[in-house]
Amino acid sequence: MNTNDMLAILAKLFDSFSFHDLFIKELSSILKKDLKGKEERFFKMLSTQLNHIRTFGRAIHTVDGHEILQGADGHYYSIHLQQSQFNVRLLVYISDNDTSYFLCAFNEKSGKRKTDYSAYTKVMQERLKDFGGVL
Hints:
This is Addiction module toxin RelE. This protein has 4 helices and 5 strands. The protein has about 140 residues and is of the alpha+beta class. It has a 5-stranded mixed β-sheet, with helices on both faces.
């Protein structure tokens, strides 16, 4: 599959979701800095996980090691795109009607220890407000 094919697939998948502008910037930065030469594998994983989110909605935490973020209201999830060469986390709010809002993206570099999402809680809440009327 070439890059244009993958971009066409992703564009179609992206239509189903809402993305905060800063999420897009963060993901672009990760692609440029941390995923250079690994884009094809990452995009395949991303398309798989987007399909899972669309299929499972708020039950996404039951597949592929994704998790509900503790200390939030039960609507915030960490989507793991993980392989030996990268460990990207996508922080997503999924509403009661299974609408997904992608809020933050980062490459987790801390190894095997459990990720502390508390630094992202306020950022996620602020970014969610930018969508207006979601809560």
